[in-house]
Design a protein that fits this description.
Layout lengths: L19 H12 L2 H8 L3 H9 L6 H11 L3 H6 L32 E7 L16 E8 H6 L7 E5 L14 E5 L9 E7 L2 E9 L3 E5 L8 E4 L7 E10 L3
Antiparallel strand pairs: 1-2, 3-4, 4-9, 5-6, 5-9, 6-7, 7-8
Helix pairs in contact: 1-2, 1-3, 1-4, 2-3, 2-4
Length: about 250
Amino acid sequence: METEREGGDANSVPNPTNGIGTRIAEVADRIGSRKAAAKAAGVSVSTLNRWTTGESVPVFAGVARLCLSAGVSLDWVAYGGQMIGGSDQAPLTLTKPHDLGEQRGDERMEDYAFVPLYDAQCSAGAGAWNDHCRVLTNLSFTRYSLRKQGLTPEHLSAIRVDGDSMEPVLHSGDTVLIDHTRTTIEGEGIYVIRLDDHLYAKRLQRSFDGVEIISANKDYERITVPKERMVELEVIGRAVWAAGWL
């Protein structure tokens, strides 16, 4: 449930400097939008805005949820200094509050894996698929849920879908999680591929003549990559999870 405190007490986030609202705003920007940040924190957009302007004192649980979603340090939000988290630093070890929706209140940050979300539009060109990409943010998954699916965090990344060729399965702006260990076409499935120096999320199907690239949207024709041109088709990995706004 959404809570908000108009005055400080033992359960509110420490506010030793005047910059806590600015730092909360920066965390919200890392997530992408105030609406998405408010949802991550479990509060309304208006409440989040009051936190950033200093009109109300942020509550610990909400700020902890926000930091967990963005992959940054709760200490940094509270005290400033060096931001911890993101794409090139290990997340802070922190006991999660009991009301974050988990079954065990003693779970810690090490129970979570942070997967980089890349700006896929920057990935065209020669070299590794993510050369010249920037990490937009990090998505958090419980290690337990990944293990259940046979996934290892070190071999995962995420990109956003662009275009309507996979509707209604995937919509433009949806996020897909890629397992980079699965680069061999295993029957029919959705894979992230690079073809002609561009990334696509497509359904792949082996055929006698080569590989069929299939769009879910019937307005797009299927493409056949013949066997003699298979070297031009790079399978980045298999899509194993997808999410988007309703």
